[in-house]
Amino acid sequence: MTSAQDPPPGDEPDARRGSWTRPSPVPRPPYPTRVTDQVLSIVGCVCAAVAVLFSPVLFGLAGIVLGIVAHTKGEPLGKWAAVAAGVGMIIGTVLSVILESVMS
Fold first, then answer.
1. Which residues are registered as beta bridge partners of 49?
2. What are phi and psi of 20, to 5 degrees?
3. pLDDT at res. 83
4. Where are the alpha helices (DSSP H) in the chain?
5. What pTM was estimated for this model as a whole?
């Protein structure tokens, strides 16, 4: 049995006041962060698709830059947008060379 002066389990004595205090609550993990919008990655992927058909150097480089910036900001698709833009730039350049030689 416990006497009236025994603290409840888990309490600690406070030497300054001579009384019992409750322990501090267990710290909660921080609130989950909001998933970042992947606008730069999406625009980089669009540039990759456009680079295949129109101005591969311009849109390909723009997609690569946007993908790298998105990746450094923590967007998960940023790296893939940069890779897709590079591949789109190469495919667009090859297609334009082939079409140029066929048309002449």
1. none
2. -100, 140
3. 95
4. 39-53, 56-72, 78-103
5. 0.63
* Side chain identity, residue 65: V
- Residues 37-56 have pLDDT tens digits of 888 999 999 999 999 998 99
**What's the one-letter identity of residue 12?**
E
DSSP 23: P
Non-local (6+) Cβ contacts of 46 within 8 A are 63
Angle at 89 between CA 87 and CA 91, to 5 degrees: 70
Q: Which residues pair with 19 in a beta bridge?
A: 14
Average pLDDT of the chain is: 80
At which residue do the structure tokens 């990655």 appear? 41
Let me know if 67 is exposed, middle or buried by CB neighbors in 10 A (0-12, 13-18, 19+).
buried
Token pair 């006497």 is at which residue? Answer: 3
Q: Are 81 and 41 in contact (CB under 8 A)?
A: yes
Residue (of 54, 66, 56, 43) closest to 87 by Cα position: 56
